[in-house]
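INTERNAL TRANSFER SHEET
From: sequence group
To: structure group
Subject: Golgi SNAP receptor complex member 1

Please process the attached sequence and return the structure record in the designated field. Keep the field labels unchanged so the import script can parse them.
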Amino acid sequence: DLRKQARQLENELDLKLVSFSKLCTSYSSSRDGRRDRYSSDTTPLLNGSSQDRMFETMAVEIEQLLGKLTGINDKMAEYTNSAGVPSLNAALMHTLQRHRDILQDYTHEFHKTKANFLAIRERENLLGSVRKDIESYKSGSGVNNRRTELFLKEHEHLRNSDRLIEETISIAMATKENMTSQRGILKSIQSKMNTLANRFPAVNSLIQRINLRKRRDSLILGGVIGVCTILLLLYAFH
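Return from structure group:
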C-alpha cells in the first residue's frame, strides 16, 4: 500500500514539475508580449500578475506533494526497521532507496526551477523598470538624442541575451528529463536482474560450471594443438 501511494504521488509530482517548468520557460516571452501590447500604465494588474499567482499556486501544490511523499518514505523506512519484517530486507532496502532517490531528484528539480523562475521574474521586473524610465525620459524631454538611442540599443541587447539564456535553460532541462528517464530505466533493469539472480541461484551456479567447462576444454584443445605442432616440427626437421 505504501509503495502504491508513493508511485501515485511520484506520477502527480512528475506532471506538476513538467507544467511548472513550462510555466517558467514561457514566463519571460509572455511578459514581453504584454509589454509590447500594452505600453501605457492603464494595463490591468490582473493581466500582469496572473502567471505570478499561477506560480505561487503550483509551488504550494508541489511542496504539499513533496511533503506527502516524504511522509510515505518515512513510513516505509519505519516498516523496514520494525520487528517481524520478512527475510527480504535487502530487497526492501533497495526499493526504499530507489524511492528516496526519486524524492531527492524531484526536490532538487523543484527548487532549481523555482529559483530560475524567481530570477527570470526579477530580471523582467528590472528590465521593465528600465524601459519605463527610458520611455518617461523620452516623453518628458521630447528629444530623440544620442543617449536615448544608446539606451534603447542596450535594452535590445539585453532582451536578446535573455532569449538566448532561456533557450539554453530549456535545452538543459529537456536533457535532464531525458537523463532522469534513462536512469530510471537502467535502475529498473538492474533491479530485475538482481531479483532474477536472487530467485534462481541454481541457474547462476550452472552457468558458472558451463563457463568453467568451456574454459577447461579450450585449454585442453590448445594444449593438444600445441603438442601436435611441436611433434610435426620435430618430424620435419628430423
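Handover comment: Helices lie at 2-37, 45-81, 89-141, 146-199, 201-237. Residues 205 and 211 are 10 Å apart (CA to CA).
Transfer complete.
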